[in-house]
Structures are given as C-alpha cells and as structure tokens.
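[Meeting: bench + compute handoff]

Bench side (C.D.) handed over the final construct sequence. Compute side (W.E.) agreed to return the predicted structure before the next meeting so the bench team could plan truncations. Sequence as handed over:
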Amino acid sequence: MQEEVENRSVNLAITTTKLTARAICSGIRKYLQHCGKVKARKAADKAAKKAAPIHGKQTVKQLIRQNQGVSSVDIAKSGIRDFERIAKRYGVDFAVTKDKSVQPPRYTVFFKAKDADALTSVHKAYSAKIMKKRSRPSVLAQLQKFKALAVGVPRKVREKIQERGR
C-alpha cells in the first residue's frame, strides 16, 4: 500500500467495446493534453505570483522599483521590531538597511505607502512609542534606590517589620 503512495502511478481509463490501437492512442493523447493544461496552469500561477507587488518587509531595490516616493528614518537596533509591527499595522512597505561604517552600527528604515497619511501615522506612532519607552523609569535604578533605603533602616526596625508581617 505504501509503495503505491510513494511511487507515482498513472491511471488511464478508456471505455470502448473493442480495445484497438486507435483507442489507446486517443487515450494517451487525451492524457498528454491534460498534463499540458496542468503544466500551463502552474506556470501561469507562478507568473502571477511573481508579478504581484510585494507588501511589508522587502529589500531596498524592490522598494525603489515601485513608483512611489521613499521616506527614511534612522532607528536603533532595539527599535526595529517595534517599527515592523507599526508598519504592518498601517500597511506600509519598508526596507531595513544596516550602516556598518559607524560604530555602533546604524539602521535606516526606508518606507513608502500609497497614502501620505499612512506615512505620517507610522512616523507619529513610532515616535510616540520611543518617547514612552524613554520616559519609563529603569527597573535597575529603582532596585538600587530601594536597596539604599533598606540599608538605611535600622536593624531592630527591620526585625519588627518582619515579625508583624508573619
């Protein structure tokens, strides 16, 4: 049973009252026509897929090939993922490039959209997200602050607080 699945087999059904060489030839001809149609359909699907415009993340060459203006923004390595999420949300095409000549490496994002509003929305949303991250206090800084406060509390008071908590 498994050998049948693994091996390709051709089933050709010909209904005739008398099996002649002409009937066999016509059956084979019909089969070859069918194979040609399947091959042509696959080739057409491939060509359509190749001709379809690419959306989302792509190379700079593919992005410039489209007939729209390109905008760019410099971002940090940690912000690439955030930008990708926002760009996908607004349906913007973009390409990320890395400039290795600067230390640390600098990332530039080229992006374009059909609407100028989408570009401004992506830029505003990304800027807002970066500003929100910068304004957030550092967890390590807060931990150091609380350590310093704990050291400053006298030992007897600490022991009383622990006893009350039990």
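W.E. noted at the follow-up: The radius of gyration is 33 Å. C.D. will use this when planning the next construct.
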